[in-house]
Structures
1.
Amino acid sequence: MTGREGSPPQRGPRRAGRPARPPVARSEERTAGEGSPGERPGRRAGLSPQRVVAAAAALADEQGPGALSLAALAERLGVRVPSLYKHVGGLDDLHRRLALAGMLELTDQLGEATVGRSGGDALRSCATAWRAYARAHPGRYAAVQRSPDPADAELAAAGERLTRLVLAVLGGYGLTGDEVVHATRAVRSALHGFVSLEALGGFGLAPGVDESFRRLVDLLDAGLTRRS
């Protein structure tokens, strides 16, 4: 029976239940893959030096090499700046890695374009691939122009590989010794100057730029043919 009307019913003794969960420190609540507070765990997963450099290359291509900073890169990857130091040694190291990646990519593309070709045919294919890479990857291309540290064996070897490829292309004209070195410098200066001016919007006159580039390569071919 109940007690007086309007009074609450009497409850029996409280049953023993599951003990209350003790408070957990914030550092223990985060899982191993979530990183520090403020980071987005889904984007941080799988972060590696290769992924960091790829993101830096994309950022440099989209906004220019001057926009590349650790803060901008961290924002792109969804992490805090200190997290980047687990994969790169800082901004200088990042620029160095970007230069290396660009140099290897450019060399591969020039090699694919010129394989099995010689003389003027090889020069035109090399020039076309050179311009295409500079237009598609302006940030990476700019990084390639950075003078390497002589003590950096890996970067020096990559630069040597690129130089030897161009030397081989020009060797098809029968040039040897100092002649092929001078020719390589002339061709590199002409191509780099053209693509750099093009990237800066330096060609504002009416004639088509593609035709101007074709004529530039024809002039190089004619000059090299006369020297052979």
Note: The chain has eleven helices and no strands.
2.
Amino acid sequence: MSEGLPKKSCSWKLAIACGGTGGHLFPGLAIADCLHEANHQPTLILSEKPIDRLASEGSSYPKVFLKSLGWQSGQRLRFLAFFPLRFLDCFKWMLKHRPDAVLAMGGFTSLAPTLAAVLLRKPVFYHESNTIPGKAVRSLAKMASLGFVGFESAKALLSPARVVLTGTPVRIEFRSLERSFCCSELGLDPEKPILLITGGSQGALALNRKMMQALPWLHQSLPQCQVIHLCGMQEDLLSLRDAYSQAAIKALVLPFMERMELALGAATLAIARSGASFISEMAAAGCPSLLIPYPHSTDAHQRVNARTLADANAALFMDEREMTPQRLIAAIVRLSTDVPFREKIQENLQTFDAPDAAARISEQMVHYLNRGGFLGQDASSSTVSAPSGAKRASSMLNPERSMTTML
């Protein structure tokens, strides 16, 4: 059982390496919020990608921006040549600011901070959101004091004795807004169905193009349907807006939405990729979805993520190779008009929601720092409360602690 975390205990400085994609960043922000509420001092280690800057600009936590490359085909020699410089930058930053521990949220932005922490004999923690651990997590898990996973299947592929199943953290905003408020903020009618379409930062192109082809059928099948389309690519923005206008469909088309809770809170259904962070947000919001895995995800982890939900009747599944305008419309119509089917999906989604994930991860890390051990696999109820407010606005945080560092 959990022994609790007194808010007045020692204040720890934790560096959270969560850059690269929204799937790493948003769970990291949720954990930072919990740590801050318990009087600890989180710092965000991010990449220089525009998505990281845009998504984190509402946060007043100290930030460190790293130049980084992924381990993609065609970039590996550049990664190996570039990595020692990033490692030295992290090492110098840690010598100066002396964090007590590092939490790695996955992705290759996490490697340099993790190695620097190991060399400085600082505890290292990590979180893996997906069903199949990524290459970066598999590498750093060997150096970590303790790990956390979003799915049971990931635990068996790491070091089970030092891994705790927590679920994936979701920001408190996803649990605190009413649909009518979300619709009002977005200028949409809550009395009409709303379809959310999002391909994430990497997988938007195919969804964008297929949906443009499907729009005439969408208007014919669901003439009152409104759309929130997060296109992810600036070059698709104008063509998508024009396509919705020609189809006479009311649509909000944006490259990215920082306040994703508004989109999921307003939506009656969604079409999306199946990254673990989005799945957790979808489950928290109770939004029934058609999941179309990004086919180039590492180790096909998005396919496994989506299949896991589909096998539990918590989502619809479609392979991108089978994605046609007609099949998309058929899935949209079913999720929109078959009320018992939609309600069953929403009920099953609850099993994938972990409302205390951020608090449990925070508690485990602080317990380790306080006492040199972890709470055990059965620590299922946390005494670290989730953040009490629904916003992460700078007015809630101490602006004097805000710091942005370029490495």
Note: Residues 13-169+354-406 form a domain with the Rossmann fold fold (CATH 3.40.50.2000).
3.
Amino acid sequence: MSFPPADLSSLRLLDQLREHIRYRHYSLRTEEAYVHWVRAFVRFHGSERHPRDMGRSEIEGFLTWLAAERQVSPSTHKQALSALLFLYQHVLGQELPWMAELGRPKRQVRLPVVLSHAEVSRLLVALPEEHRLVGRLLYGTGMRLLEGLRLRVKDVDFARRVIIVRDGKGGKDRVVMLPTALEGPLKVQMRLAGELHRADRDEGLAGVHLPHALARKYTRAAESWVWFWVFPQGSVSRDPRSGGERRRHHVQEQAFQRAFKRAVHEAGIAKPATPHTLRHSFATHLLQAGTDIRTVQELLGHSDVSTTMIYTHVLRVGSSGVRSPLDDLVSQFAESGRSGASELLPGYVVDGLGVSAAANDPKISGAGPLVTRDLSPCYAVHPKSACPILPSSTAAAISAS
């Protein structure tokens, strides 16, 4: 049985939950998520009932409602279950056999959304100027959004051309490269941040938030320049964990997320891209360039290389040289001049030169010629005799439609 620490004496249930979470040094995001699910659980069964008086059937009823009615994802379902188990085991001090029997949703493996180089370029251009540097930093280093926004002055080493990511996912530190293209913009950003730092000192505001009680150990560190944010917020706000003390926070992730969503639309990217997609694209493009997967694993901060291997699945089909049998079939019709190819590609004319759009077809008029690849590979030796790059017939047909 798990007993609560002796010095945690809050009366309200949610306050007790917060104290137990902070006692175990869980992240603020975990605290917010657990409080949300416990509150939702109590409201689902009626606020007059205390969780101490409920048990397995109530938990299963709530989780079933989430899965069947709300249709939440397996990861959200699992997070809600973890919050309730934490409540009963650590806050209420109950360790009952049925807790181990609660079914956990099966984890679904999803391929990450990855942008091409051209899409990343359009996206970064479409980002507003005040958010563009953050977007370039995420793509250029593979950092997560909060890791980039929480960057402090002391963690950017221009001499060694590295950035130290502090307290990343799982509380781990790691080192990533400092892109040469960002050295100048980051120095300009730090000069702007320095102006806000001096204004805060002149106004007598509290220093920035420091983790793990460092503010008590080093009393002036919070007010020092080296601990200041690289991307400080334009206005001051109240610290939710220090009794509402006014201090300057880093840029809020919601602001960047909203700007990113608008930029994806303006760039004409038909993919469900989020700021985390830049991290996926960073890893995929490094592997495409021939970077060792162990190096990519270290840059991403993955504990297990199997997590990094997901990006090889993204590359496997597109870069393996596997050709669709439909392309081979259409090419054979085109080279032999046989009839019947028009049935394979309605609206296109197949002749000895390849496949082209029918001039009298209004659906695809103006689509231009659809050229098939040569069946015989071209092994060019001299640079001037390099083979032209021709699109596949399938890809062109899709783009034309």
Note: The first strand starts at residue 156 and ends at 157.
4.
Amino acid sequence: MPSGEVKTGLELGKPHSRRYHKYIYHACIDCGLERWTTFDGGIVQSPRCKACENRFKAKHNPHLYKLGIGSGLSPQERNVGTPEWCEKQRIAHLGKPSPCKGQKRPGLGEKLSKLSKGQHRSPRTEFKKGQNAKEKHPMWKGGITPENRLERAKPSYAEWRLMVFGRDNFTCQDCGRKGIYLHAHHIMEFAKHTKLRLDVENGITLCKDCHMKLHGLAKKGGDANAK
């Protein structure tokens, strides 16, 4: 395309607000890049391309274009990320409090809970307790889960475990270790004495190794964690 050719914004497919502006095919006076630029009253409005114009402004107006940020300069030209730049940033912020200090920044869950506070789902989509229980669930197989497993999955059983641990100060009553994974052992068998399942006096705190040893399930080679 010959340099100096003039066209309207309509011919170049410019937005509606610029369709009647005049454009000239002009070479940048710095890098020589040819491109369409505005041409008003016989004067080229932008003798430089965008990148060269930003470099020119950053060079002659450093107080307006600090370090050339947002001016089209490359990180190498702005010296961003160099050891000298990092040290300069460190000294500039030394002793200054964080701008976020003291500000409460709630998590996403809290924000969503506030947005949905007071809202009620429609009866068609609102979850109802027990709507997928037992026969209503598509994966129901006639109640084949053992009773032992069902009882241990109840919230009351979890509360019983915590009460036993708290009474024994979260300490294994056999080896005396703390800070390890603990089991709540039933003194009277869980399967045979159903009435004593949730009795705190029928429980004792044991570590995993001592519990397995009590049931004769200890690993061969002895307890690796024994003192």
Note: The longest strand covers residues 34-40.
